[in-house]
Amino acid sequence: MLSTLQAPRSLSHFRTNPTLLLRYTSLKPLSSLSSQPVTHSTITDQSPSPNALPHSQILSTRHSLLSRHFTATQLADSFLARLRLTEPHLRSFLHVSDSVLAQARELDEKIQRNEELGPLAGVLVAVKDNICTAEMPSTAGSRVLEGYTPPYDATAVRKIKELGGIVVGKTNLDEFGMGSTTEGSAFQVTANPWDVSRVPGGSSGGSAAAVSARQCMVSLGSDTGGSVRQPASFCGVVGLKPTYGRVSRFGLMAYASSLDVIGCFGSSVADAGILLHAISGHDRLDATSSKREVPNLEAEHVSISSLDSKPLKGLRIGLIRETLDDGVDTGVTSAVRNAALHLEELGCSVTEVSLPSFSLGLPAYYILASSESSSNLSRYDGVRYGNQVPADELNSQYKDSRAKGFGSEVKRRILTGTYALSAGYYDAYYKRAQQVRTIIRKSFKVALDEHDILISPAAPSAAYKIGEKKNDPLAMYAGDIMTVNVNLAGLPALVLPCGFVEGGSAGLPVGLQMIGAAFDEGKLLKVGHIFEQTLQNCNFVPPLSR
């Protein structure tokens, strides 16, 4: 009987114990499943065994598929129904795959044949549209790549598919990742599920909104200066930026190559950690990917029932003083200070720490990122890459293809970067920005030598109105102050919801950013998991999804 079995505590148990897997996959024939329709709420409210990771949609789905509570086809059909219902309001997706149900049926056939399943079997994953996917368009939110379908999958996407994940579609973004609202997309503006009159953040706003609205289970984004963490804060989901080199960048369309990373969104820390574990590891196709062994990131998630009263006793937390200065909304400051108090209740020692170079990160970031984008985007000329505008003369063809293919924000950053790299200004701008980057790295190392984790707000405010900052790029750039330093230092960071401020019909979520030492994602996931499971009186499901 199913009731006599306990779910394994980690997906790794299935990999190392095929017998256990077969016990689960042979519990009940598919033909014995109820013929009654399965609603989205029926599926998403299913709770796994008490020994499974709390609130993990990934493990809950696996448990339910293996116990034959519902089929992968029913699951996929339920999420697609919710996507169709909510997409006209949110516009999270630029493309929805037409093979989702076919892949789900193949998975059901595998289960019926008692074949071994991958750890992401049946998990519906959305992918940011600057990450290449074979057989699906990949436009980077730009007219210059409109209609382009890559002949290959990005390494991260390939790994997800190999482990059984189903890519549900491609999500909206600011063009080439340059923006903080999705208003820079050439195709549409995504709305925030907490209040559709507000932005979801960016540039990975589509991926964050899709997870928040339960249009998918988890999603991939990219983070160059906060493009996973800021939208995670705005949409009330978990956003994980890994250490530079932890995840292969092969197949990620380059914006600023020394800063770009592929990151993860989930509705829980556990799901973000499982997804990161699935896509991590060295890749011979990316010379910057690390050869470090990937630890079992799933092992950091323990059952809440097994925790003592001070589960984080002895952990040293540094609250970055400069992130609570003038310019940060009082509601955000209050939420982060309350989060620090909660960490103290869990046994942490929380002290303020000063990073004097923190304010230098924003100008240094925009010089370096714009310079690299100027170089990386030079390939889109209508001849080598990108849509071509016919012209009588080659230079006119280059000019017209780029003028009509790129949006205003991309052009602004290309011009800024070209200027910073020009012969007369290289030393004054680019070289000096690199020197600032070294100072920032050293300041983080000193702080993390004395603290296990650093914390800060993920953004100076909660989500703001669509159009509020569209015509004020400097104000929009200033919103990245909390996140860009982490990219300059190449460190991992986790953002998870910690409270609310006033706004919308149910309040607006505020994200807490946790920053760790290089390749120490495991510690961030452990602390984040305990934090979210012990936080009281907070429901981070938007009204649109209830």
Question: What order do the helices and strands come in, and which of them pair?
Answer:
Elements: H1 12-16, H2 18-25, H3 40-44, H4 57-66, H5 72-90, E1 93-96, H6 100-112, E2 124-128, H7 155-162, E3 166-171, H8 205-212, E4 218-223, H9 229-235, E5 238-241, E6 261-266, H10 269-279, E7 316-320, H11 330-345, E8 349-353, H12 361-376, H13 394-405, H14 408-421, H15 427-450, E9 453-457, H16 473-478, H17 484-489, E10 493-501, E11 508-515, H18 521-534
Parallel strand pairs: 2-3, 2-4, 7-8, 7-9
Antiparallel strand pairs: 1-3, 4-6, 5-6, 5-10, 9-11, 10-11
Helix pairs in contact: 5-6, 12-14, 12-15
Catalytic activity: L-glutamyl-tRNA(Gln) + L-glutamine + ATP + H2O = L-glutaminyl-tRNA(Gln) + L-glutamate + ADP + phosphate + H(+)
GO biological process, one term: mitochondrial translation
GO cellular component, one term: mitochondrion
What labels would you give this structure?
546 residues; alpha/beta; Amidase signature (AS) enzymes; 11-stranded mixed β-sheet; globular; disordered N terminus
